[in-house]
Specification:
alpha/beta
Length: 256
């Protein structure tokens, strides 16, 4: 399956050259919220990322509002010109917000207040009925739905079963592998899960822990067509500027 690019708002078209990049701007908001200031502005960062070539803007509106705020979401719905991907827990509060704001895509993720960042994938198989209802309500509203899951065949199959059109594979365990043998095993798990997703008719994305040193290995997995990357881009932007940080990542996402 070839990678995708956005041709216009809400539409996906073929692009044979590189994997799509969703830039997550959460940690621009993290820096702002550390001082409860008005800057730096994640809305401005999203615009710069798009100008640099990002295919999608990703934000996570968490229950505790630790970084992205409701106002950010509403402003980005008005200003993002590519695709807006809202990561959220499958709660009634978040569902109401999504149905009101109508982002282009919703990615359902697990969420715990005490975690620093999302620690693992959504257990779709265990929560099949609830997620089928949530996914159905979003799809009915014309919102594309992705499930963020660990690279396990049963979770990919469950995501397809409840009606998601997209599955995003959690790459954290691979990124944090302590040695080469563990890393190789995790890469094969990702490869197999991506193949499973493609064969189930899902668009396959991936993310978590990806950076400028490891992204090329995930880009090499042909069934993965989109990566959502945030922390490493924001960190690099401190030294090179946000536009250049996005361009540098895009340069690494071309399939050779």
């Amino acid at each position: 399956m070839a990678p995708f690019r956005v041709a216009e708002r809400g539409a996906i078209a073929l692009d044979m050259e590189r994997v799509r990049l969703g830039v997550n701007v959460d940690h621009v908001a993290t820096l702002r919220q550390a001082r409860k200031a008005r800057y730096p502005d994640p809305v401005a960062a999203a615009s710069i990322a798009e100008l640099a070539g990002a295919d999608q803007i990703t934000i996570h509106l968490r229950e505790d509002r630790r970084h992205i705020q409701d106002r950010d979401l509403h402003l980005m719905r008005q200003t993002v010109t590519t695709r807006l991907n809202l990561e959220m827990a499958a709660t009634e509060e978040m569902l109401k917000i999504a149905l009101s704001v109508r982002p282009d895509e919703v990615t359902l993720v697990p969420e715990r207040r005490e975690e620093l960042t999302t620690e693992g994938g959504l257990d779709v198989a265990e929560n099949y009925n609830d997620l089928e209802e949530t996914t159905g309500r979003l799809v009915e509203a014309g919102i594309a739905v992705s499930h963020f899951v660990d690279p396990e065949p049963q979770q990919v199959a469950a995501a397809a079963g409840v009606g998601a059109g997209i599955v995003e594979l959690h790459t954290g365990k691979w990124c944090e592998s302590p040695n080469s043998s563990s890393r190789a095993r995790e890469l094969e798990r990702l490869r197999a899960a991506a193949k499973e997703g493609r064969e189930a008719g899902l668009m396959v994305a991936a993310g978590h822990g990806l950076n400028y040193h490891n992204v090329h290995e995930i880009v090499s997995l042909e069934d993965i067509v989109e990566l959502n990357i945030g922390h490493s881009i924001v960190a690099r932007a401190l030294f090179s500027g946000f536009e250049q940080a996005v361009r540098d990542m895009l340069a690494l996402m071309v399939r050779r």
